[in-house]
Specification:
Blueprint lengths: L2 H13 L5 H10 L11 H11 E2 L1 H9 L4 H6 L1 H13 L10 H11 L3 E5 L5 H10 L5 E5 L24 E4 L3 H11 L3 E6 L5 H13 L1 E9 L7 H8 L5 E5 L2 E7 L1
Parallel strand pairs: 1-7, 2-3, 2-5, 3-4, 5-6
Antiparallel strand pairs: 6-8, 7-8
Keywords: Methyltransferase, Transferase
GO molecular function, one term: methyltransferase activity
Organism: Chryseobacterium shigense
Length: 256
């Protein structure tokens, strides 16, 4: 699909969804007035992250006191089936990330309530749900509709049907989804951020999510090297954070 066709299809998708008009307005501002916002402070943060980064294995042990090898063996069959479903999916979205970090964050906190932003195939959702099902917990997910492609039916595609009973999916932008989620549950054990990559979008979401993270809960943010929002947020709130290097990108994680 050409860029022009993609933009036109996205715009038409917004026009058909009045409930998404607020996000359309934000998108227009982000791509015009605040166009450089996405990469604000990127060089600074990548240097900062590189100096302190550890592997996912090290982070899981240092933060949670747990070895992470059991995840891939215990759930080998489920992960293999999920990988096959991703391979067969006709729509391409984001692949699996640091699944062990998410899973063991849930195990460490004995999580019953988890919130995530950004779903795509549902790899991070799967990691959370595998832990939550042990305690009959609930995963609350915020994910924007895929307006530029016919991908909505494939959101969460790798999540097995038997885990979906513990999952509530909100198909709006974060600024609309998160208030709805917090109206249902106000305190969370684990927060996983992987949606709006802009500086302003992250700073807004970090502040809101942090207020709803219980003491002792775990905060995880993907792709923190895109800009300096995560670093600035941690410094502003005097947060000592761990930085995980994973497949050439950086993930931020801390215990509140």
């Amino acid at each position: 699909m050409s860029e022009i066709k993609r933009v036109l299809k996205t715009f038409m998708g917004y026009l058909k969804r009045p409930d998404l008009y607020p996000e359309l307005g934000r998108k227009i501002i982000k791509n015009t007035v605040n166009r450089g916002n996405a990469f604000k402070g990127k060089d600074k943060t990548n240097s900062w992250a590189a100096e302190r980064s550890v592997s996912q294995k090290e982070a899981v042990y240092q933060l949670f006191g747990l070895e992470m090898h059991a995840f891939s063996t215990t759930y080998a069959g489920i992960l293999k089936t999920a990988a096959q479903r991703e391979k067969e999916c006709p729509v391409k979205m984001g692949g699996p990330g640091a699944l062990e970090l998410i899973y063991y964050a849930c195990e460490f906190t004995h999580a019953k309530h988890v919130v995530e932003t950004g779903v795509a195939y549902g790899w991070s959702s799967l990691a959370s749900l595998l832990s939550l099902e042990k305690r009959d917990g609930v995963l609350y997910s915020s994910d924007m509709p895929y307006l530029a492609q016919d991908g909505d039916q494939y959101v969460g595609y790798v999540v097995p049907d038997d885990l979906k009973k513990n999952w509530k999916l909100f198909r709006f932008a974060d600024k609309e989804s998160l208030p709805k989620i917090f109206a249902e549950n106000s305190a969370f054990d684990v927060l996983h951020y992987d949606s709006d990559k802009s500086y302003n979008g992250r700073m807004w979401a970090y502040e809101v999510l942090y207020k709803h993270l219980r003491k002792g809960g775990v905060f995880i943010s993907d792709d923190i090297g895109d800009n300096s929002a995560y670093q600035d947020f941690c410094e502003k709130n005097n947060i000592e954070t761990t930085v995980v290097e994973y497949e050439g990108k950086y993930i931020g994680v801390f215990i509140k």
